[in-house]
Structure formats: C-alpha cells, structure tokens
C-alpha cells in the first residue's frame, strides 16, 4: 500500500486540534498563574547558585527580624552606656560619702593605706579602659582597591574581607578580627579595642569583688539595723542613718551581682584568648572541627600560638617591663600587626621571648 501525504497531513492536524482543546480546558486563570510563578521564583531564589546553603536561606527568611533587633540594639546602645556610667558613679558616691569615713574611723593605718591605694588604682584602670573601649575604633578593612590578601567578599559591604574579619549588622560595617558587638560599649569589639574591653571586664570584676568582700561586715550591720523583729520595737534611727544603711545594702547587692555575672564573662573571654580565638571564631572552629572529624582528620586553629604567646600577643608584651607598663598600668599602645594579615601555623617557639 502507498502512503498518501494528504492523509498524513489530515491525521497530524486532528491530533494538534485535540491537544490544543485539552490545553485550553486545563488552563488556569491568569491571577492563579501569576501567584504560582511568583512562588516558584521565591523558591528558586534560595538556590540561585552553588554557594547557597542553609545559612543563606535562614538569613534570607529572618532578615526582617535581624534588622529589627539590630536597629533596637543600635538605639539602646546609648542607654546602656548611660546605665554603666550612672551605676558606677552611684557606687563611687556611696563609697566616698559613707564607706570611706567608716574605714577611717575603724581600720588601722595599714588597712586604710591598702584600701585607698588599691581602690584608686582599680578605679583608674576601670575608667581608662572603659573610655578607650568605647571611643576606640575596632578597626575596619580598607574600602579602596589594594593588593592586600583576602579570603572572601562580604555579601553586605561588597568589599574584600581579610582573614578573621566579619560583618557587624549593628554597625553595618566589616570589623577586623571581630569578637562581638557589645551594647554596653555601644561599639564593636575588634582588633584595636579588644584589649581595652577585656581589661575593663577584668578590672570591673576585681573592683566589684573588692567592694563585696570589704563591705561584707558593713552590709550585715546595715541589714540587721533595718531588719526588725515583731517582738521588739525598731530602734530609733534618723533619716540619715536609714539612708546610709540602705545605700550600703544597695552597693553590696549590686557589686556582688555584677561580680558573679561579669566574672563569668571575663573567665570565658580569658579561655578564648588562651586558645587564640574570638567569640565568633569559637563557633566557626567548633563547626570546622566536627566537619573534619567526620572525614577522619584533625582540625587545628591556625592562629593559636600557644597559651603564653597568645597572651603576649593580646597584651602587646614585647619585653619584660611591658608586663608592668602595658598590663598593670594604663597604656594606649596599639596591638601588634595591622589586622589585615595574620601568621598562620607558627613554629612552636616563643614568638616574643619574654
């Protein structure tokens, strides 16, 4: 049998008409198709390239929440700084107006000398380090083109990020060797002011412990004077005596509470400094360690120079006299290095032979 071209043409035409009829029957309304296309576009935007992972999806979904938290924290930073200054000033006022006169009347000359010398040295270290931590820039990477090595490009700033650099959503800038954003400083803690932040926490804890222990007996006397028993009438106290007792109780409770809370934070940062890592690097190193363990390999922090050397680098100790002039006394020296390049996997020896 011969195949007729006209018959095949009519057959193809019938099939095409039937398929077109089915498509028209299954066509959805335009507004539904637009919504469906928009949803597909949103879903596909989560995996627009091979670098997208769960962190990118999480950041994209919760971006409005992060923006709100960053905005509130940025605004409340000034309030937190005011609270630090106000609470510290109130403790100083109570100490100078009420506690010191009692110390001069009851303690011996040696104890008075110790309290006055240590208390004022501790106070100078607190004020100096808090001022420097608040006013010193944490350090920013260059925004112009340069030949410095970098490890990635910031997705927010769209500039090269050197090693150990991270973006702060509150400051809206990249920070060199960023540790965290501290609302109590209203500033980021980075390469240039990390030492001031740690010294402030350390000496504030020491000052609170000093006030708590030295004022324990005064606190007990003031508490017993205010606390009355139902069986006996309260002894007659003047308004001034009541104010002194309540002020001493307020000072002891506040300093004891701050000593516990801030002392725990100081110990945590001391552990991080001993390991040669920041708060952000702690989480990154822990994640990298778990990833390497799954592959049967061991991960080592490339910026860990050893415990003693980590402290030397952190404090900027370059000779023996610096333990006094740069650690125990106020010092405005800059940390070693520029924060853009770091020596990784150093040789196991004292980088600073002190």
Textual characterization of the structure:
This is Palmitoyltransferase. The chain crosses the membrane at residues 75-99, 111-131, 196-215, 249-273. By secondary structure, the protein is mainly α. It has one domain (66-328). The protein is 62% helix and 5% strand. It has eleven helices and six strands. It has helices spanning 5-26, 30-45, 54-61, 63-106, 109-135, 194-214, 216-226, 239-275, 279-294, 307-315, 322-328, and strands spanning 152-153, 160-161, 166-168, 173-175, 180-182, 187-189. It has a two-stranded antiparallel ribbon with strand order 1-2. The chain has a two-stranded antiparallel ribbon with strand order 3-4. Strands 5-6 form a two-stranded antiparallel ribbon. Helix 4 crosses helix 8, helix 5 runs antiparallel to helix 6 (194-214) and helix 7 (216-226) packs antiparallel against helix 8. It is globular and about 90 Å long. The relative contact order is 0.08. Residues 1-5 have low confidence and may be disordered.
Shape, principal axes of CA atoms: globular
**What string, H for helix and E for strand, traces the elements in order?**
HHHHHEEEEEEHHHHHH
Question: Could you name the ranges where pLDDT drops below 50 across 5 or more consecutive residues?
Answer: 1-5
Main pleated-sheet profile: 2 strands, antiparallel
Gyration radius from CA atoms, angstroms: 32 Å
Strand content: under 5%
Helix content: 55-70%
| Overall pLDDT confidence | 84
Task: Look at the helices and sheets and give the structural class.
Answer: mainly alpha
| Count of beta strands | 6
Our count of helices gives 11
Number of domains: 1
Q: Describe the strand arrangement of the main beta sheet, using strand numbers.
A: 1-2
The N- and C-terminal alpha carbons lie at a distance of 105 Å
Pfam families: DHHC
Catalytic activity: L-cysteinyl-[protein] + hexadecanoyl-CoA = S-hexadecanoyl-L-cysteinyl-[protein] + CoA
Enzyme class: transferase
GO molecular function: protein-cysteine S-palmitoyltransferase activity
């Amino acid at each position: 049998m011969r195949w007729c071209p006209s018959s095949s043409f009519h057959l193809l035409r019938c099939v095409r008409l039937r398929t077109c009829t089915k498509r028209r029957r299954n066509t959805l309304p335009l507004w539904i198709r637009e919504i469906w296309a928009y949803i597909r576009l949103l879903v596909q935007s989560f995996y627009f390239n091979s670098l997208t992972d769960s962190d990118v999806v999480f950041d994209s979904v919760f971006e409005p929440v992060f923006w709100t938290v960053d905005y509130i924290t940025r605004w409340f930073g000034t309030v937190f700084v005011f609270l630090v200054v106000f609470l510290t000033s109130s403790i100083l006022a109570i100490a100078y107006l009420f506690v010191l006169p009692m110390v001069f009347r009851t303690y011996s000359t040696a104890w008075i000398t110790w309290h006055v010398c240590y208390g004022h040295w501790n106070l100078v270290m607190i004020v100096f380090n808090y001022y420097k931590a608040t006013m010193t820039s944490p350090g920013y990477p260059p925004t112009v083109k340069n030949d410095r090595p970098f490890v990635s490009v910031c997705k927010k700033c769209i500039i090269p990020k050197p090693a150990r650099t991270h973006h702060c959503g509150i400051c809206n800038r990249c920070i060199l060797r960023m540790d965290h954003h501290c609302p109590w400083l209203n500033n980021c803690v980075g390469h240039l002011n990390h030492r001031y932040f740690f010294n402030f926490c350390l000496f504030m804890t020491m000052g609170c412990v000093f006030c708590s222990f030295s004022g324990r007996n005064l606190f007990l006397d003031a508490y017993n004077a205010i606390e009355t028993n139902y069986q006996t009438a309260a002894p007659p106290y003047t308004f001034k005596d009541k104010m002194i007792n309540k002020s001493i109780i307020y000072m002891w409770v506040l300093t004891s509470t701050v000593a516990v809370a801030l002392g725990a934070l100081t110990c945590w940062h001391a552990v991080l400094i001993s390991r040669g890592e920041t708060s952000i690097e702690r989480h990154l190193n822990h994640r990298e360690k778990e990833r390497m363990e799954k592959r049967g390999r061991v991960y080592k922090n490339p910026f860990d120079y050893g415990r003693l050397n980590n402290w030397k680098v952190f404090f900027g100790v370059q000779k023996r006299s610096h333990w006094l002039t740069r650690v125990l006394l106020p010092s405005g020296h800059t940390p070693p290095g520029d924060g853009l390049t770091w020596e990784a996997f150093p040789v196991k020896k004292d980088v600073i032979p002190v």
